[in-house]
Amino acid sequence: MSVKLVHVATIPLTISLFLRGQIPFMQNRGFEISVVCSPAPESDEIAAREGVRVYEVPMVRGIAPLADLLSLVRLWLLFRRIKPDVVHSSTPKAGPLAMVAGFFAGVPVRIYTLRGVMVDRRTGLARQVLRMMEWIGCRFADQVVAVSRSVAEVIVRGGMCSERKIVVLGRGSSNGVDAEHLFNPALVDSNEVSGLRTACRIPADATVIGFIGRIVHGKGIVELGAAWRNIRDRRDNTFLLIIGPEEPQDPVPEEVLAQLKADPRVVMVDLVPREKMPLYYRLMDVIAFPTYSEGLPNVPLEAAAMKVPVVATRVTGCVDVVADSVTGTLVPVANADALAAALDAYLDDPDLRLRHGSAGRNLVLREFRPETVWQSLYERYMYLLRRKGGPLPEPVAVVDRGKDVPASSTATERT
Predict the structure, then answer these.
(1) Could you state, in order of their start, the residue ranges of all structural domains in the chain?
(2) Sheet strands side by side (includes 207-212)
(3) 3-state DSSP: the chain helix, strand, coil percent, rounded to 5?
(4) Do residues 245 and 269 touch, judged by C-beta distance below 8 A?
(5) What is the C-alpha to C-alpha distance for residues 415 and 404, in angstroms, rounded to an integer?
(6) Which CATH class is domain 3-176+369-414?
(7) Which pTM was predicted?
(8) Crossing angle of the two packed helices 65-82 and 94-104, in degrees rounded to 10
């Protein structure tokens, strides 16, 4: 028997980033999977790639009470029509909306995944609204899954969820890291790395500090810029490689960006396809990750899988994936001097980079394999279905993406 599982996210990108590989894993175990997200060109791609039906329900990312009410009604009507056995939602907007709609539509199992702590990044009325939204999402969920232990602690301590309802699966993570087939330094062609280094105009003997992430204030770009100015004046053969898009929300001060862009030893790359990221990791000797807050960040895990040590801030999420003085270094948040000193330590000591990089890869292989995360989630689904007395899925033949998938299972429906 197949069990209907519906994933809900505000935008399709969340599905692409956090459910890659997880969907066929669950399909092979008897789940019939659909996706609900806001309208976007990527919907058809997700439907075709994953072999799922995508339902498009407009959801606004910002605070918009009237639009949210309309989205809530649309989700309720959709759930009443397709009658899912499990609704699994994430992201601050889609999460609470799907949990409330699922409750009133009579969905037996409702799961809300917390991928971060948004209230930490807001003040005033916006903070209060977000806090209320998180509380609502947790209140109407049967199970809340936090992607890290530090996120769970903040949510419980803040009164947004009861301790008995929230769980962390294994060591955490949304989807694990593929350290065998993708983020594996043994699979990277050294000639391609050399070619990329030349294309980036980085000398063969130069050391490279890397940063990967959105170019926004909350990622610590101000501190990164200050730490870089400290380092570059003392190290004329060190480069800074920044990978990520600039975003208008939470903007970085213009003067900080202008200084980085004008520096001949700063290489800025907008977006890199996921399959090309291992090449860029191999260019880097150490990664700076001075973020203000995270859920459970992928960059430090991907870097660790590629044997690159990380200097990260001691904040939610980072403390779960960077073992201080073992796989990397944790520094105080918003402290450019501490960031520069920790980066200096790695630039000065190739043996330290090697030790921490190797330890990082061992950690990822041991604790953050995708299959480990997926199996833990599957067991949680089964536990909740048994507790609710619902139908249980029966494993099916392995899904072969190279063969035709029935058209009905790959449609995109606008609602």
Answers:
(1) 3-176+369-414, 185-367
(2) 266-269, 238-243, 207-212, 286-289, 310-313, 328-331
(3) 45, 15, 35
(4) no
(5) 26
(6) alpha beta
(7) 0.89
(8) 50
Contact partners, residue 185, CB within 8 Å, separation at least 6: 278, 281, 282, 306, 307, 361
What type of residue is 332?
A: P
Place of tokens 């005033």: 124
Indicate the fold that domain 185-367 takes in CATH.
Answer: Rossmann fold (3.40.50)
| Rounded Cα gap, residues 215 and 252, in angstroms | 7
Burial class (CB in 10 A: 0-12, 13-18, 19+), 68: middle
Residue 52: which residues within 8 A CB-CB, separation 6 or more?
23, 33, 34, 35, 46, 409, 410
What region does 213 belong to: left with phi over 0, alpha with psi -120 to 50, or beta? left
Give me the helices (H) in 284-369, please. 298-305, 318-321, 336-348, 350-367
| Whole-angstrom distance, CA of residue 65 vs CA of residue 348 | 53
Question: Position 32: which residue type?
Answer: E
Q: Beta strands of 10-85 (E only): which ranges?
A: 31-37, 53-56
Q: How many residues does the chain have?
A: 415
CA distance 365 to 369: 6
- pLDDT tens for the chain, 415 residues long, are 689 999 999 988 888 888 989 999 999 999 999 999 999 888 888 898 888 999 999 998 777 889 999 999 999 999 999 999 999 999 888 999 999 999 999 999 999 999 887 766 666 777 788 888 899 999 999 999 999 999 999 999 999 999 999 999 989 888 999 999 999 999 999 999 999 999 999 999 999 999 999 999 999 999 999 999 999 999 999 999 999 999 888 899 999 999 999 999 999 999 899 999 999 999 999 999 999 999 999 999 999 999 999 999 999 999 999 999 999 999 999 999 999 999 999 999 999 999 999 999 999 999 999 999 999 999 999 999 999 998 899 987 654 544 444 434 567 787 7
For residue 148, give the DSSP letter: S
Alpha carbon distance, N-terminus to C-terminus of the chain: 28
Which DSSP string corresponds to 108-127? SEEEEEE---GGGG--HHHH
Name the residue among 99, 106, 79 with its Cα closest to residue 139: 99
